Amino acid sequence: MNKFGRKIPFFPVFFLFKMAFQNGGISFGKTPLFLGYVIRYLLLEPFRLAELLVYNKRLKNHVLTSDPIFILGHWRSGTSHLQNLIVQDPRNTTTSIYQFLFFDNYFLSEKWLKKPLNSICRIFKIPYTIQRTLMNLDLPVELESAMCSMCSSSSYTWGHIFPSQFEKWSNQFIALNDKTNAESWIDDYDYLIRKLSYGSKGKQVIVKSPGDTARVEVLLKKYPSAKFIYIHRDPIDVFHSSKYLWNVIQQQNSFQRISDDEIDHIVIKTYKLVIDTYLKSRSSIPEGQLVEISFTQLQQEPSETMKTIYKSLSLGDFPENKLQPFIKKNESFKISHYKTSPELLSKLNQEWGSCTFEFLKK
Question: What is the dihedral of CA 278, 284, 289, 294, to 10 degrees?
């Protein structure tokens, strides 16, 4: 994050315009969405500055009670469902939708702003299309996205907001091959993690951001005792579901439009980057700090799979009574099924390689 710039009044507005200028501008028809972001920053600027003044030093000095638990896996592999399950344990904390949207001011704004916003969502039945449910600002969400609301220029999520530049952002801040990029990213990421920890009075922080799947070595260097849960899903389903995700992002979050062919290219290339990098780096994770599960396992045997996770990572007593209400509530959730042409299957097999397929189908 721009440490000096963040202290300047209305810095986020200038930052947003700068990002638009540097990343290909705004597509026709996307201006209202862009203006919505601008208005959000303008209205809540006093709370951002006040929170920075009151809490910035405390957050810098805050020490985690334990290293985070990272949920790994490509987008649409079941990471969100796993995140929902593990945060039913009251000893854990993670990013909520409200916090992601207002990470720069939620200490001061959440108590009075979240409730009326949730009421609006409930009254008008506003959908949370990404997870095919109704919007609830308490739902868990990935941490990486919050870096944008904190005006960090070290997040691949800018590639979702400016998708014409996604390849640039993924090369810089998913792979993290450049030392400078790795240092700037982990510095900002750590700030967000410590803020979650401080705000929850030291609870265990659960971090879910699919890009972390390719950043294991950087995470271990910062958090040597971190624990990792890797979830994998049939890659064909991941491809189709990722296309759905990108269509939602295009409609609701992006300032630019890209074609279906460009989306296909992004999904294919990003999957290969994320999964291949994980396969190369997972051996660096110390014994007892990694457990691997499948999406099918989690869907069919949620309690047993969660028990396996707790036992493998030595997370203490498994709070089955806390998880059961959530499990029962979601028993009727139906998994989407997709038709795949022989041509697409051949293309994906050629692009991703048989080794990756065999690993993910175990």
Answer: 30
DSSP state of 286: P
Angle formed at CA 249 by CA 243 and CA 253, multiple of 5 degrees: 170
| Integer Cα distance of 332 and 322 in angstroms | 19
Sign (positive/negative) of CA torsion 50, 54, 55, 56?
Answer: positive
pLDDT (tens digit per residue) in 123-139: 999 999 998 899 999 99
Residue with tokens 């930052």: 15
pLDDT tens-digit profile of 245-293?
A: 999 999 999 999 999 999 999 999 999 999 999 999 999 999 999 999 9
Record: fold of 5-360: Rossmann fold (3.40.50)
Q: Which of 87-96, 311-320, 328-337 has the lowest mean pLDDT?
A: 328-337
Give the sign of the dihedral formed by CA 294, CA 300, CA 304, CA 307. positive
In angstroms, the CA 264 to CA 237 distance is 14
- Two tokens, residue 304: 């047993």
